[in-house]
Specification:
Helix content is 27%, strand content 17%. The chain is of the alpha/beta class. The chain has a 3-stranded parallel sheet, covered by helices on one side. Helix 2 links the parallel strand 2 and strand 3.
Length: 81
Amino acid sequence: MVTAGLGIVGAIEVECSPWFEDNQWVLDIAAKDSIVVGTVGNLDPGEADFPKRLEQLHRNPLFRGIRVREFVGAKPGRWIF
Protein backbone atom coordinates (compact mmCIF):
# COMPACT_ATOMS: atom_id res chain seq x y z
CA MET A 1 0.00 0.00 0.00
CA VAL A 2 1.30 3.47 -0.87
CA THR A 3 0.58 4.81 2.62
CA ALA A 4 2.62 2.14 4.41
CA GLY A 5 5.00 3.72 6.92
CA LEU A 6 3.44 7.19 6.65
CA GLY A 7 1.07 6.90 9.60
CA ILE A 8 -1.98 7.39 7.40
CA VAL A 9 -4.82 5.21 8.63
CA GLY A 10 -7.70 6.41 6.49
CA ALA A 11 -9.04 8.92 4.02
CA ILE A 12 -12.34 10.70 3.58
CA GLU A 13 -13.30 11.36 -0.04
CA VAL A 14 -15.17 14.54 -0.99
CA GLU A 15 -17.27 13.96 -4.10
CA CYS A 16 -17.02 16.56 -6.86
CA SER A 17 -18.94 14.84 -9.63
CA PRO A 18 -22.41 16.28 -10.26
CA TRP A 19 -23.77 12.80 -11.08
CA PHE A 20 -25.70 11.25 -8.20
CA GLU A 21 -24.57 7.76 -9.21
CA ASP A 22 -20.96 8.68 -8.47
CA ASN A 23 -21.82 9.07 -4.78
CA GLN A 24 -22.87 5.41 -4.69
CA TRP A 25 -19.85 4.38 -6.75
CA VAL A 26 -17.56 5.84 -4.07
CA LEU A 27 -19.49 4.02 -1.32
CA ASP A 28 -19.08 0.77 -3.27
CA ILE A 29 -15.31 1.35 -3.52
CA ALA A 30 -15.13 2.23 0.19
CA ALA A 31 -16.86 -1.03 1.10
CA LYS A 32 -13.97 -2.92 -0.51
CA ASP A 33 -11.01 -0.71 0.48
CA SER A 34 -10.41 -0.06 4.18
CA ILE A 35 -8.31 3.07 3.51
CA VAL A 36 -11.55 4.92 2.66
CA VAL A 37 -13.22 5.59 6.01
CA GLY A 38 -15.92 7.91 4.73
CA THR A 39 -17.27 10.05 1.94
CA VAL A 40 -18.85 13.47 1.72
CA GLY A 41 -21.44 13.42 -1.06
CA ASN A 42 -22.32 15.91 -3.73
CA LEU A 43 -26.07 16.52 -3.63
CA ASP A 44 -28.06 19.61 -4.55
CA PRO A 45 -30.62 20.46 -1.84
CA GLY A 46 -32.54 22.42 -4.47
CA GLU A 47 -33.43 19.30 -6.44
CA ALA A 48 -36.92 17.84 -5.98
CA ASP A 49 -35.56 14.36 -5.20
CA PHE A 50 -32.99 15.61 -2.66
CA PRO A 51 -34.75 14.10 0.42
CA LYS A 52 -35.00 10.68 -1.23
CA ARG A 53 -31.41 10.69 -2.43
CA LEU A 54 -30.07 11.91 0.91
CA GLU A 55 -31.96 9.15 2.74
CA GLN A 56 -30.63 6.56 0.30
CA LEU A 57 -27.01 7.56 0.92
CA HIS A 58 -27.50 8.18 4.64
CA ARG A 59 -28.29 4.48 5.18
CA ASN A 60 -24.60 3.75 4.63
CA PRO A 61 -22.47 4.52 7.72
CA LEU A 62 -19.57 5.59 5.47
CA PHE A 63 -21.65 8.48 4.16
CA ARG A 64 -20.69 11.45 6.37
CA GLY A 65 -22.69 14.30 4.84
CA ILE A 66 -22.84 16.61 1.85
CA ARG A 67 -20.33 19.16 0.71
CA VAL A 68 -21.19 22.79 1.23
CA ARG A 69 -21.16 24.84 -1.93
CA GLU A 70 -23.15 27.52 -3.65
CA PHE A 71 -25.92 26.22 -5.85
CA VAL A 72 -27.45 27.69 -8.97
CA GLY A 73 -29.84 30.41 -7.90
CA ALA A 74 -28.22 30.94 -4.49
CA LYS A 75 -27.22 34.43 -3.49
CA PRO A 76 -23.43 34.90 -3.79
CA GLY A 77 -21.55 34.20 -0.58
CA ARG A 78 -24.40 32.36 1.17
CA TRP A 79 -23.93 28.86 2.53
CA ILE A 80 -26.70 26.56 1.38
CA PHE A 81 -27.32 23.17 2.99
